[in-house]
Write a sequence for this structure.
Protein backbone atom coordinates (compact mmCIF):
# COMPACT_ATOMS: atom_id res chain seq x y z
CA UNK A 1 0.00 0.00 0.00
CA UNK A 2 2.87 2.39 0.61
CA UNK A 3 4.02 2.06 -2.97
CA UNK A 4 0.54 2.81 -4.18
CA UNK A 5 0.52 5.82 -1.91
CA UNK A 6 3.77 7.11 -3.31
CA UNK A 7 2.49 6.80 -6.85
CA UNK A 8 -0.76 8.46 -5.88
CA UNK A 9 1.21 11.12 -4.04
CA UNK A 10 2.42 12.45 -7.37
CA UNK A 11 -1.11 13.45 -8.23
CA UNK A 12 -1.78 15.35 -5.06
CA UNK A 13 1.65 16.36 -3.81
CA UNK A 14 3.62 18.17 -6.40
CA UNK A 15 5.33 20.71 -4.20
CA UNK A 16 4.98 22.36 -0.77
CA UNK A 17 2.08 24.51 -1.93
CA UNK A 18 0.03 21.42 -2.76
CA UNK A 19 0.60 20.12 0.76
CA UNK A 20 -0.53 23.43 2.20
CA UNK A 21 -3.61 23.45 0.01
CA UNK A 22 -4.72 20.00 1.13
CA UNK A 23 -4.02 20.68 4.79
CA UNK A 24 -5.80 24.02 4.79
CA UNK A 25 -8.83 22.51 3.10
CA UNK A 26 -8.96 19.94 5.86
CA UNK A 27 -8.83 22.69 8.50
CA UNK A 28 -11.70 24.52 6.84
CA UNK A 29 -13.68 21.30 6.46
CA UNK A 30 -13.25 20.83 10.22
CA UNK A 31 -14.86 24.18 10.93
CA UNK A 32 -11.66 26.02 11.91
CA UNK A 33 -11.98 29.70 12.74
CA UNK A 34 -8.32 30.32 13.19
CA UNK A 35 -5.42 28.72 11.34
CA UNK A 36 -1.71 29.11 12.09
CA UNK A 37 0.70 28.20 9.33
CA UNK A 38 4.40 27.88 10.05
CA UNK A 39 6.74 27.27 7.19
CA UNK A 40 10.49 26.81 6.97
CA UNK A 41 12.62 26.92 3.84
CA UNK A 42 9.73 27.45 1.47
CA UNK A 43 7.90 24.53 3.06
CA UNK A 44 10.47 21.92 2.13
CA UNK A 45 11.91 21.66 5.60
CA UNK A 46 8.72 22.24 7.55
CA UNK A 47 5.04 22.91 7.11
CA UNK A 48 3.14 23.05 10.38
CA UNK A 49 -0.55 23.89 10.35
CA UNK A 50 -2.64 24.22 13.44
CA UNK A 51 -6.36 24.75 13.54
CA UNK A 52 -9.06 25.12 16.16
CA UNK A 53 -11.56 22.91 14.34
CA UNK A 54 -13.48 20.00 15.81
CA UNK A 55 -10.47 17.70 15.83
CA UNK A 56 -10.06 14.00 15.15
CA UNK A 57 -11.19 11.48 17.79
CA UNK A 58 -8.50 9.16 19.13
CA UNK A 59 -9.83 6.04 17.40
CA UNK A 60 -9.92 7.76 14.01
CA UNK A 61 -6.46 9.24 14.19
CA UNK A 62 -4.47 6.32 12.69
CA UNK A 63 -7.22 5.87 10.13
CA UNK A 64 -6.88 9.43 8.90
CA UNK A 65 -3.49 8.55 7.43
CA UNK A 66 -4.69 5.57 5.45
CA UNK A 67 -5.72 5.75 1.86
CA UNK A 68 -9.34 6.37 0.98
CA UNK A 69 -10.16 6.99 4.59
CA UNK A 70 -12.46 9.92 4.52
CA UNK A 71 -15.02 10.94 7.05
CA UNK A 72 -16.71 13.15 4.53
CA UNK A 73 -18.79 10.89 2.34
CA UNK A 74 -21.14 8.50 4.03
CA UNK A 75 -23.34 7.67 1.10
CA UNK A 76 -22.92 7.74 -2.62
CA UNK A 77 -25.55 10.42 -3.04
CA UNK A 78 -23.35 12.67 -0.97
CA UNK A 79 -21.08 12.88 -3.97
CA UNK A 80 -23.72 14.95 -5.69
CA UNK A 81 -23.71 17.64 -3.09
CA UNK A 82 -20.22 17.52 -1.67
CA UNK A 83 -20.06 20.60 0.45
CA UNK A 84 -16.66 19.92 1.93
CA UNK A 85 -13.49 20.72 0.07
CA UNK A 86 -11.80 17.36 0.34
CA UNK A 87 -13.59 14.08 -0.11
CA UNK A 88 -11.25 11.64 -1.74
CA UNK A 89 -9.50 10.63 1.44
CA UNK A 90 -6.05 10.44 -0.02
CA UNK A 91 -4.33 13.67 0.83
CA UNK A 92 -2.95 12.72 4.23
CA UNK A 93 -1.96 9.23 3.05
CA UNK A 94 -0.16 10.69 0.06
CA UNK A 95 1.60 13.41 2.00
CA UNK A 96 2.66 11.00 4.74
CA UNK A 97 4.21 8.67 2.17
CA UNK A 98 6.64 11.35 0.99
CA UNK A 99 7.47 13.16 4.22
CA UNK A 100 7.88 12.81 7.96
CA UNK A 101 4.40 13.57 9.14
CA UNK A 102 2.84 13.93 12.53
CA UNK A 103 -0.80 14.47 13.22
CA UNK A 104 -1.83 15.72 16.64
CA UNK A 105 -5.41 16.31 17.53
CA UNK A 106 -7.81 16.83 20.33
CA UNK A 107 -11.45 16.28 19.58
CA UNK A 108 -14.46 17.90 21.12
CA UNK A 109 -15.34 16.30 24.44
CA UNK A 110 -12.07 14.39 24.69
CA UNK A 111 -9.96 14.49 27.83
CA UNK A 112 -6.68 14.93 26.06
CA UNK A 113 -4.97 14.99 22.69
CA UNK A 114 -3.31 12.21 20.73
CA UNK A 115 -0.59 12.02 18.12
CA UNK A 116 0.31 9.69 15.30
CA UNK A 117 3.45 9.97 13.26
CA UNK A 118 4.95 8.32 10.21
CA UNK A 119 8.20 8.53 8.34
CA UNK A 120 7.65 7.85 4.68
CA UNK A 121 7.72 4.15 4.10
CA UNK A 122 7.54 3.32 7.77
CA UNK A 123 3.97 2.19 8.08
CA UNK A 124 3.69 2.10 11.82
CA UNK A 125 1.39 4.82 12.92
CA UNK A 126 1.67 4.55 16.66
CA UNK A 127 -0.62 6.46 18.92
CA UNK A 128 0.87 8.69 21.65
CA UNK A 129 -0.88 10.89 24.14
CA UNK A 130 -0.09 14.54 23.50
CA UNK A 131 -1.13 17.88 24.89
CA UNK A 132 -3.18 19.85 22.41
CA UNK A 133 -6.03 22.33 22.68
CA UNK A 134 -9.17 21.43 20.77
CA UNK A 135 -8.26 21.19 17.11
CA UNK A 136 -5.56 19.65 14.98
CA UNK A 137 -1.91 20.21 14.15
CA UNK A 138 -0.30 18.58 11.15
CA UNK A 139 3.45 18.79 10.88
CA UNK A 140 5.11 17.86 7.61
CA UNK A 141 8.90 17.70 7.69
CA UNK A 142 11.47 17.04 4.97
CA UNK A 143 9.12 16.82 2.04
CA UNK A 144 10.27 14.29 -0.58
CA UNK A 145 13.14 13.12 1.67
CA UNK A 146 12.56 9.60 0.33
CA UNK A 147 11.80 10.52 -3.27
CA UNK A 148 14.93 12.32 -4.50
CA UNK A 149 13.67 12.44 -8.08
CA UNK A 150 10.70 14.52 -7.03
CA UNK A 151 12.85 16.63 -4.77
CA UNK A 152 14.96 17.63 -7.74
CA UNK A 153 11.98 19.34 -9.33
CA UNK A 154 11.61 21.77 -6.47
CA UNK A 155 12.59 25.34 -7.24
CA UNK A 156 14.26 27.92 -5.04
CA UNK A 157 12.98 28.60 -1.54
CA UNK A 158 11.60 31.91 -2.76
CA UNK A 159 9.68 30.34 -5.64
CA UNK A 160 8.24 27.55 -3.52
CA UNK A 161 7.19 30.02 -0.87
CA UNK A 162 5.57 32.17 -3.56
CA UNK A 163 3.40 29.26 -4.69
CA UNK A 164 2.53 28.46 -1.12
CA UNK A 165 1.60 32.04 -0.30
CA UNK A 166 -0.63 32.15 -3.37
CA UNK A 167 -2.55 29.11 -2.13
CA UNK A 168 -3.09 30.78 1.24
CA UNK A 169 -4.11 34.01 -0.43
CA UNK A 170 -6.76 32.23 -2.49
CA UNK A 171 -8.24 30.57 0.56
CA UNK A 172 -7.99 33.66 2.75
CA UNK A 173 -9.96 35.61 0.13
CA UNK A 174 -12.68 32.99 0.14
CA UNK A 175 -13.02 32.75 3.90
CA UNK A 176 -13.15 36.18 5.46
CA UNK A 177 -14.61 34.61 8.58
CA UNK A 178 -11.44 32.65 9.31
CA UNK A 179 -8.23 34.10 10.75
CA UNK A 180 -4.94 33.15 9.10
CA UNK A 181 -1.47 33.62 10.48
CA UNK A 182 1.40 32.78 8.16
CA UNK A 183 5.02 32.70 9.25
CA UNK A 184 8.01 31.93 7.08
CA UNK A 185 11.34 31.15 8.74
CA UNK A 186 9.93 32.45 12.06
CA UNK A 187 8.83 35.77 10.61
CA UNK A 188 5.21 36.82 10.24
CA UNK A 189 4.21 37.27 6.61
CA UNK A 190 0.44 37.64 6.98
CA UNK A 191 -1.61 38.12 10.08
CA UNK A 192 -5.24 38.17 9.05
CA UNK A 193 -7.93 38.49 11.66
CA UNK A 194 -11.42 37.29 10.86
CA UNK A 195 -13.05 40.06 8.82
CA UNK A 196 -16.72 40.70 9.46
CA UNK A 197 -17.52 44.16 8.17
CA UNK A 198 -17.05 45.41 4.64
CA UNK A 199 -14.25 47.63 5.88
CA UNK A 200 -12.45 44.72 7.48
CA UNK A 201 -12.86 42.66 4.35
CA UNK A 202 -11.43 45.40 2.22
CA UNK A 203 -8.55 45.73 4.64
CA UNK A 204 -7.82 42.03 4.20
CA UNK A 205 -7.93 42.42 0.43
CA UNK A 206 -5.59 45.38 0.65
CA UNK A 207 -3.15 43.27 2.66
CA UNK A 208 -3.32 40.38 0.23
CA UNK A 209 -3.72 42.12 -3.11
CA UNK A 210 -2.18 45.49 -2.38
CA UNK A 211 -3.94 48.77 -1.59
CA UNK A 212 -3.80 49.86 -5.26
CA UNK A 213 -6.33 47.21 -6.21
CA UNK A 214 -8.92 47.95 -3.58
CA UNK A 215 -8.49 51.74 -3.85
CA UNK A 216 -9.44 51.52 -7.51
CA UNK A 217 -12.12 48.88 -7.29
CA UNK A 218 -15.89 49.00 -7.51
CA UNK A 219 -18.07 46.87 -5.31
CA UNK A 220 -20.53 44.50 -6.88
CA UNK A 221 -23.47 42.79 -5.25
CA UNK A 222 -26.23 41.75 -7.59
CA UNK A 223 -28.75 38.99 -7.33
CA UNK A 224 -31.01 37.72 -10.08
CA UNK A 225 -32.78 34.51 -11.02
CA UNK A 226 -31.08 32.38 -8.40
CA UNK A 227 -27.61 33.77 -9.05
CA UNK A 228 -25.68 36.17 -6.89
CA UNK A 229 -22.48 37.93 -7.85
CA UNK A 230 -20.59 39.94 -5.28
CA UNK A 231 -17.08 41.21 -4.75
CA UNK A 232 -14.77 43.77 -6.26
CA UNK A 233 -13.76 44.65 -9.79
CA UNK A 234 -10.59 46.65 -10.26
CA UNK A 235 -10.57 49.67 -12.50
CA UNK A 236 -7.49 50.08 -14.62
CA UNK A 237 -4.90 52.41 -13.22
CA UNK A 238 -1.71 53.59 -14.71
CA UNK A 239 0.28 51.52 -12.31
CA UNK A 240 1.66 48.23 -13.47
CA UNK A 241 -0.92 45.80 -14.74
CA UNK A 242 -1.67 42.91 -12.49
CA UNK A 243 -2.51 40.15 -14.90
CA UNK A 244 -2.64 37.62 -12.09
CA UNK A 245 -5.08 39.56 -9.92
CA UNK A 246 -8.02 37.48 -10.99
CA UNK A 247 -9.87 35.59 -8.31
CA UNK A 248 -13.18 34.02 -9.12
CA UNK A 249 -15.05 31.80 -6.68
CA UNK A 250 -18.04 29.61 -7.32
CA UNK A 251 -19.83 28.67 -4.14
CA UNK A 252 -16.67 29.42 -2.21
CA UNK A 253 -14.23 27.50 -4.38
CA UNK A 254 -11.68 29.25 -6.51
CA UNK A 255 -12.03 28.29 -10.15
CA UNK A 256 -10.57 29.03 -13.55
CA UNK A 257 -13.17 28.69 -16.20
CA UNK A 258 -13.33 29.68 -19.85
CA UNK A 259 -16.97 30.69 -19.73
CA UNK A 260 -16.40 32.91 -16.71
CA UNK A 261 -13.20 34.42 -18.11
CA UNK A 262 -14.96 35.16 -21.37
CA UNK A 263 -17.93 36.90 -19.76
CA UNK A 264 -15.69 39.06 -17.58
CA UNK A 265 -13.33 39.97 -20.40
CA UNK A 266 -16.22 40.81 -22.70
CA UNK A 267 -17.82 43.16 -20.17
CA UNK A 268 -14.50 44.80 -19.46
CA UNK A 269 -13.69 45.28 -23.10
CA UNK A 270 -17.13 46.60 -23.98
CA UNK A 271 -17.00 49.33 -21.39
CA UNK A 272 -13.85 51.02 -22.55
CA UNK A 273 -11.08 49.21 -20.76
CA UNK A 274 -9.73 47.96 -23.99
CA UNK A 275 -6.49 46.09 -23.81
CA UNK A 276 -6.33 46.09 -20.03
CA UNK A 277 -6.32 42.94 -18.01
CA UNK A 278 -9.41 42.75 -15.88
CA UNK A 279 -8.62 42.49 -12.18
CA UNK A 280 -11.18 41.15 -9.77
CA UNK A 281 -12.08 39.28 -6.63
CA UNK A 282 -15.54 37.93 -7.38
CA UNK A 283 -17.87 35.43 -5.80
CA UNK A 284 -20.64 33.70 -7.67
CA UNK A 285 -23.23 31.92 -5.62
CA UNK A 286 -25.84 29.57 -7.00
CA UNK A 287 -27.76 26.48 -6.10
CA UNK A 288 -25.22 23.61 -5.79
CA UNK A 289 -27.27 21.49 -8.17
CA UNK A 290 -26.68 24.09 -10.87
CA UNK A 291 -22.97 23.46 -10.95
CA UNK A 292 -20.65 20.47 -11.10
CA UNK A 293 -17.42 21.22 -9.30
CA UNK A 294 -15.87 17.80 -9.67
CA UNK A 295 -15.02 17.91 -13.33
CA UNK A 296 -11.32 17.89 -12.62
CA UNK A 297 -9.43 16.31 -9.71
CA UNK A 298 -7.63 19.55 -8.86
CA UNK A 299 -11.10 21.03 -8.60
CA UNK A 300 -10.33 24.29 -10.37
CA UNK A 301 -12.79 23.64 -13.15
CA UNK A 302 -16.55 23.68 -13.07
CA UNK A 303 -19.39 22.86 -15.34
CA UNK A 304 -22.54 24.91 -15.13
CA UNK A 305 -25.84 23.26 -15.81
CA UNK A 306 -27.08 26.40 -17.52
CA UNK A 307 -23.90 27.97 -18.83
CA UNK A 308 -25.66 30.44 -21.08
CA UNK A 309 -27.63 31.88 -18.23
CA UNK A 310 -24.51 32.18 -16.06
CA UNK A 311 -22.61 33.84 -18.87
CA UNK A 312 -25.28 36.39 -19.60
CA UNK A 313 -25.77 37.13 -15.90
CA UNK A 314 -22.05 37.73 -15.40
CA UNK A 315 -21.73 39.79 -18.53
CA UNK A 316 -24.75 41.99 -17.97
CA UNK A 317 -24.02 42.53 -14.28
CA UNK A 318 -20.40 43.54 -14.81
CA UNK A 319 -21.29 45.58 -17.85
CA UNK A 320 -23.78 47.60 -15.87
CA UNK A 321 -21.49 48.07 -12.87
CA UNK A 322 -18.56 49.17 -14.99
CA UNK A 323 -20.67 51.45 -17.17
CA UNK A 324 -21.87 53.26 -14.04
CA UNK A 325 -18.37 54.24 -13.05
CA UNK A 326 -17.06 54.94 -16.50
CA UNK A 327 -15.26 58.27 -16.29
P1 LIG B 1 -10.28 13.96 2.83
O1 LIG B 1 -10.10 15.39 3.23
O2 LIG B 1 -10.39 13.81 1.36
O3 LIG B 1 -11.35 13.27 3.62
P2 LIG B 1 -7.65 13.62 3.87
O4 LIG B 1 -6.60 12.60 3.60
O5 LIG B 1 -7.33 15.03 3.51
O6 LIG B 1 -8.96 13.15 3.15
O7 LIG B 1 -8.05 13.54 5.39
C1 LIG B 1 -8.48 12.30 5.92
C2 LIG B 1 -9.42 12.49 7.08
O8 LIG B 1 -8.69 13.00 8.21
C3 LIG B 1 -10.52 13.50 6.85
O9 LIG B 1 -11.64 12.91 6.24
C4 LIG B 1 -10.84 13.97 8.26
O10 LIG B 1 -11.73 13.09 8.88
C5 LIG B 1 -9.51 13.87 8.96
N1 LIG B 1 -8.82 15.17 9.07
C6 LIG B 1 -7.74 15.56 8.36
N2 LIG B 1 -7.33 16.79 8.73
C7 LIG B 1 -8.19 17.21 9.67
C8 LIG B 1 -8.31 18.42 10.46
N3 LIG B 1 -7.45 19.45 10.31
N4 LIG B 1 -9.32 18.49 11.36
C9 LIG B 1 -10.19 17.44 11.53
N5 LIG B 1 -10.12 16.29 10.81
C10 LIG B 1 -9.14 16.17 9.90
MG1 LIG C 1 -8.56 16.58 2.57
Amino acid sequence: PRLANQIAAGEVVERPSSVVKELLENCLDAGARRIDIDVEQGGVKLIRIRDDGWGIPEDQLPLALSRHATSKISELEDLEAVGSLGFRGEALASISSVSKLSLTSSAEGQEQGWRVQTEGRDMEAQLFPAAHPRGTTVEVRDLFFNTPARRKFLRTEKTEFGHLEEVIKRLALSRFDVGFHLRHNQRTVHQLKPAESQLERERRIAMLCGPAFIDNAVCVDVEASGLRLWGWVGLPTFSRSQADMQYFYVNGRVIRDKLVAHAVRQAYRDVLYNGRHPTFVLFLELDPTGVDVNVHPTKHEVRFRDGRNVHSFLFSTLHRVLAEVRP
In short: The first strand starts at residue 34 and ends at 40.
